[in-house]
Amino acid sequence: MTAPPGPTQPPGTTQPAEATRLLEAAQLHKAYRxxxxxxxxxAARRRAVDGVDLSLVSGRHLGIVGESGSGKSTLMRLLLGLxxxxxxxxxxxxxxxxxxxxxxxxxxxQVVLQxxxxxLDPRMTVRRxxxxxxxxxRVPGDxxxxxxxxxxxxxxxxxxxxxxxxxxxxxxxxxxxxxRALAPGPKVLIGDEPLSALDVVVxxxxxxxxxGLADEFGLTLVLVSHDIGVVQQLCHDVLVMKDGVxxxxxxxxxxxxxxxxxxxxxLLSAVPQLPAEAL
Amino acid sequence: MSLLEVSGxxxxxxxxxxxxxxxxxxxxxxxLGLIGASGSGKSLTALAVLGLLPDGASVSGSVRLDxxxxxxxxxxxxxxxxxxxxxxxxxxxxxxxNPLMRIGRQISEPLRLHxxxxxxxxxxxxxxxxxxxxxxxxxxxxHxxxxxxxxxxxxxxxxxIGLACRPALxxxxxxxxxxxxxxxxxxxxxxxxxxxxxxxxxxFISHDLAxxxxxxxxxxxxGSGRVLEQGTVSDVVRAPQHESTRALIAAARxxxxxxxSREVLS
Lengths: 279, 266
Known about the structure:
The complex is a heterodimer.
Chain A: E1 21-33, E2 45-57, E3 62-65, H1 72-79, E4 87-92, E5 95-96, H2 103-108, E6 109-112, H3 116-119, H4 126-136, H5 143-153, H6 170-182, E7 188-192, H7 200-217, E8 220-225, H8 228-234, E9 237-242, E10 245-251, H9 252-255, H10 262-270
Parallel strand pairs in A: 3-8, 3-9, 6-7, 7-8
Antiparallel strand pairs in A: 1-2, 1-4, 4-5, 9-10
Helix pairs in contact in A: 4-5, 4-6, 5-6
Chain B: E1 4-13, E2 16-26, E3 31-35, H1 42-50, E4 57-65, E5 68-69, H2 75-81, E6 86-89, H3 93-96, H4 103-114, H5 119-132, H6 138-141, H7 151-163, E7 169-173, H8 181-198, E8 201-206, H9 209-215, E9 218-223, E10 226-232, H10 233-238, H11 243-255, H12 260-265
Parallel strand pairs in B: 3-8, 3-9, 6-7, 7-8
Antiparallel strand pairs in B: 1-2, 1-4, 4-5, 9-10
Helix pairs in contact in B: 4-5, 4-7, 5-7, 7-8
């Protein structure tokens, strides 16, 4: 019998004998003050992230799933050092990550956001957009050549560098955002719903691109998404978040097919399924 | 005679056909999923049925509702049909609802316009519609504004408005794309129930095959403005006739969650 035609196993499953821990979070807490509802009472606080631990191992793509308000975006901002935790620490290869310039960290960990129309400056050419992290992070080398290289890597061509974002389709714009993230040669790529604004056909091609790039450049991906399908197709491990807490974690193959926590079970049972004939 | 008969529908923008010779029919209580990649002409097809095309679009062909030609009708005549015989639920309830109007008034507006209900009768009806679409504490909720509601609640309001006058045909354009999965599941169940209870015909637009499959048995696949194929979901999926359909199915498969049991079965 041939292998079951299930989701394709993410590539690069072979783990090095000694797994390198890249990003680590220990007991992260972050609360936001809610708008005041009374003159006399203290404003209520919302615990967006409430005691989260995680450890990103080199080569093992991590999915962080949850619904709106689960705290997954706050967790991502903490991991990126864009926000200071109320308690707990984020470290990268053992060094503390804190908000600020942190050029060494930004060269290692880059981000792709959901909507490329919002994340790409419409007045800048693709060349300036993609070269910007090279300048800001003072990455040595020929910027022009690097731009050409990463544009090719994401399936665009170097001659597109002199155009502006509005001249591209949604899928191409997301490729530009990915090229910008790749430019400084990061080891970790964090995506905040990087495929959600794309239609199905484009989504599957950008998903395949991310998988290929991770292999080619030895990237470890962190995918923050409410899209369980995409996480299952791309990631090795998954964290399921609800109300700022990780309710379940483990290998995708286990958590997304035999969930133990009632919330994960409810989440999975809500996912619309393809007709049996399509599988 | 079908409830809705669309034949040879063509929409041109700047001379270029964006909907190209589209034909389909719906009987009372029928459902059809309209599926295709972005830019395939799905939304424009629905907007053409309602006479809501953007300025500069020219339309030809025929759209008949109960045998009456809708194309070429003036705004006055169309406004007697919109909201009453044909209603629409939009993708983004955030932008489809009026932020300055209380929920109750938005739900009762079509009733006041089309059914001539008094303000008080329409307000009472709005509360019962709000209850019917599963909004919590409907008596109080009708007095709130859209920003006070969650995304799922806003889309339930959109459904209440759409179904207020018991239209014969409901057009739903990606009504759950903006929602979380558990919320989406609830809204789809609700849509499914309301539409079958009222024997409303449904044209359901989506790029997501899995979502369409939850509510429709029959689909039409659109590509570059044309209907590439039509049939039951299972037939189309089992034996797609067109390259674009195959690409759509392959993409759905490559991005969808696959439950373990299925994996083992196949």
